[in-house]
Amino acid sequence: MRGVTMRIPNFIVLAGLLALPGLATFANGAELQNERSAVEECGAHSESAMRECLSKRSQQSKRMLEQAEAQAAARLSMWDEDSKYISRAKEKLRTSSKAFEQYRDAQCAFDSSLGGGAIGNALEMRRLGCLIGLNTRRSEQLNSTVAALPAK
């Protein structure tokens, strides 16, 4: 009976995470699947292990974003364009990355607040799910934005 009672709260937390507002409004089905798969995979664990799993996935998404930013900067360095435009684009990339970080943190804090009176652990899991989704989308956006730039 104890195993059943432990699964019900996990199911409730998992259902709440899958109902995140951001998950319902994706334009790209692959992005939705990536975020949902992270939440579903982590949902197979106990609540504390679920939080740890989401935390690890969040860190992975952060590293993926950092790599995408570095690759975008490298791609800009190889862009077949005047150096002044390359420098300007790199500066705009840095500005954009800083603004995204602020937006992401504010958006995920807002998303977490939509958990209402849920316990702190559930609110943190909402925040982590949001981070995973936004980091993933930003990484994909950066990669696709610079992919077609002609190289020197």
What report would you give on this structure?
This is Lysozyme inhibitor LprI-like N-terminal domain-containing protein. Pfam families: LprI. Keywords: Signal. Residues 46-142 form the Lysozyme inhibitor LprI-like N-terminal domain. It comes from Massilia psychrophila. Helices cover 82% and strands 0% of the residues. The chain has helices at 2-18, 21-24, 29-42, 47-77, 83-113, 120-147. The protein is built from six helices and no strands. The longest helix is centred in the middle third of the chain and has 31 residues, at 47-77. It starts with a helix and ends in a 5-residue tail after the last helix. With 152 residues, the protein is mainly alpha-helical. Helix 5 runs antiparallel to helix 6. The protein has one domain (2-147): Up-down Bundle (Substrate Binding Domain Of Dnak, Chain:A, Domain 2), CATH 1.20.1270.180.
CATH topology: Substrate Binding Domain Of Dnak, Chain:A, Domain 2
Q: CATH architecture, please?
A: Up-down Bundle
How much β-strand is present in the residues? under 5%
- Number of structural domains: 1
Q: Write down the Rg.
A: 18 Å
Question: What's the helix and strand layout?
Answer:
Blueprint: H1 2-18, H2 21-24, H3 29-42, H4 47-77, H5 83-113, H6 120-147
Helix pairs in contact: 3-4, 3-6, 4-5, 4-6, 5-6
